Amino acid sequence: MRAALRPAVWEPRPRTPSSCSCCLAELAWFDYFRRPRTVSFGVEDFDRYPKGTTCFLAPRGLLLDAIDASRTRYADARHVNDDTPLIRWIAEREPIHVSPEFACDYRPRTTLRGFLRHSFHRGVVFVDGHGRRESRFFPVVVAFYPATVLLALATVRLTPIAIGAVAVVSVGAAGLGIVRQRSAREVTALALLSPLYALLHGAGMWRGLLMLAVGRGLHVRPAPPA
To answer: What is the average per-residue pLDDT within 37-49?
Structure first.
């Protein structure tokens, strides 16, 4: 923690009992989680390391400048991705530091209703944060829409395809949990919840696309946090 007190930008590693959220994070940021260590990264490798993990330390002036420069294409600023674009702006100017020795406790959603609402919301903000050419996940966002249209058309005509899609998500998530040496209870939770997460996250991404269409041409500055 002494290093965090110097004029630097620090992103903590989250500690969370939520196996689904944790394993998804480990998949998205595999370059870091396969070998957690103290490391600094910039905009060139920005999407390969954890960020938006509940706590973020930065010099006040730099953070205020980033908030002032932040823009969203959503007309309703309540649904913007309020961390990824902002931190990307900072990474263009200052290195971001992350270390397994600097962590924070994350309080996950503990009810099914809360989990489902959060899954949908994550899809909405994912489009705002990564539906930009500078994001490594931009091709994923672009490919998602035609792929899900084709999948939906196929499942309407062939029910086994829908069952197969659910099985692939479930088995894949459980396999990731096994590889990451999770407990049997956590692997079971991943297998059961991941298809629900994928469905709601996808619905949120479609909602995000609609919000982009409504706000087309807008570049709204999100309100600063209270």
So the answer is: 88
* Residue spans per domain, the chain: 7-214
pLDDT score, position 112:
86
What is the number of other CB atoms lying within 10 angstroms of the CB of residue 66? 21
Over 60: is that where the pLDDT of 226 sits?
Answer: no
Output Rg (C-alpha) for the chain, integer angstroms. Answer: 18
Q: How many CA atoms lie within 13 A of 18 on its CB side?
A: 22
Beta strands in 16-129 (DSSP E): 39-41, 96-105
Angle, helices 84-91/60-69, rounded to nearest 10 degrees: 120
Helices (H), the chain: 19-28, 30-33, 60-69, 84-91, 112-130, 138-157, 159-179, 184-214
d(CA 71, CA 53): 21
**What's the average model confidence in pLDDT over 10-22?**
61
Integer Cα distance of 226 and 67 in angstroms: 12
Contact 53, 105 (CB under 8 A): no
pLDDT (mean) for 168-184: 86
Please answer whether residues 59 and 7 qualify as being in contact, where contact means their C-beta atoms are separated by less than 8 angstroms: yes
The pLDDT of residue 3 is above 50: no
